[in-house]
Amino acid sequence: MVVVAGYKIKLPHYHQLIPYKKFDRSAKPLADHNHNLRSRDLDVVQRDFAPVYGPVGRGLTGLKNLGNTCYMNSILQCLSNTYFLNEFFHDPAYKTRLNRNNKTQGKIGEEVAAVIRALWTGQYKCIASKNLRYVVGQYERQFGGIEQQDSHEFLTILMDWLHSDLQTTQMHMSTSFDKLPPSEKAWIEHFKGKSSYISDLFYGQIKSTVKCKRCEQESATYESFSNLSLELPQDSNICYLENCLDMYFHGEEVRGWHCPKCKSNQDAIKKLDISRLPSILVVHFKRFYADPDAMSTVYRKKQTLVKFPLNELNMTHYLARTEVMRNQRLTTHRYHLYGVSNHYGSMESGHYTAFCLNSVHQKWFKFDDYNVSSIDASDVQASAAYILFYSLLPVRPQSDVR
């Protein structure tokens, strides 16, 4: 149980230091890698937000494009509109959780917090996230330049950084480690026994079960995730999110699996299920792919319109039967949408925006770099949708009087 802005919310109690994932950058929007980074000590210099002053609603401040940084702006606006993360960073006490002994020394967490706080003052039409771009560029050089990058890759690495920067809580075990179920052991091992507010909000766990078709022997492994990366149906102009989820969790045949019981290679069925639902569910669509019909390696983008629910996304069907008890901490398995990172254009030339549900105004807004405008909820579903942000937590606590 954690308390944010005086509101008690039941969250999971565990977590990690996640090794950075290896990305297939050939299937991501292209970048030129010009690394002209500023050399100055950001710890002793006032942050350079370069604000454009003007009264706007809280959370309706735009972000300047610092030379193709729309991918970063899109993700930051979605995180800014993640209610409980927003409240966490607005409480000065978050600094007591900063981990200064990791690679990023708490700097990523500090800069993200500073940007989010500035976005919610209501005093600026737009600001520039120059300091954040500089800091992230120190640890992943492609994010420090002025070239277009992939918002999914940025988000995934950013989640790992933020978890590591806020990783100060020792995981609580109700019994000795050896007596824990395999899923719990895997969770604790993955996060090195340390949890964070980020892991409590954003991370879940997948159970992968391989079953021998000859003797029906099963072997299960577990892997934590901060987002689900889903394939889109082939040769389809329109589909539903449920179609993509069904494809991801549908069993597939594995040939030549070494069965520990048969002591030989056998055909088997591999099945994925969710063993731990996250409080914030992030879904990514694999839109970029290598064209199999091209004479040379050419990458294309799927423009498939995915129809996804704005409310009542029910994930119960995808829960592993053996892990239902672990998910009783959640009062519901039904998610509501509050953010979308959109990608327009092709792999070589594109643009990112965000659609976000503002918790104060209870309306959807389009964040197109420094331009912010209201949109109808009916316009949120679009073929540009690239990453979806769902929450099973309240849109905002009823007790909140901001």
Automatic annotation (TrEMBL):
GO terms for biological process: protein deubiquitination; proteolysis. Its EC number is 3.4.19.12. It catalyses: Thiol-dependent hydrolysis of ester, thioester, amide, peptide and isopeptide bonds formed by the C-terminal Gly of ubiquitin (a 76-residue protein attached to proteins as an intracellular targeting signal). Residues 61-393 form the USP domain. Keywords: Hydrolase, Protease, Thiol protease, Ubl conjugation pathway. One of its GO terms (molecular function) is cysteine-type deubiquitinase activity. Gene3D superfamilies: Cysteine proteinases (3.90.70.10). It comes from the Eukaryota. Pfam families: UCH. Belongs to the peptidase C19 family. This is Ubiquitin carboxyl-terminal hydrolase. The lineage of its organism: Eukaryota, Metazoa, Ecdysozoa, Arthropoda, Hexapoda.
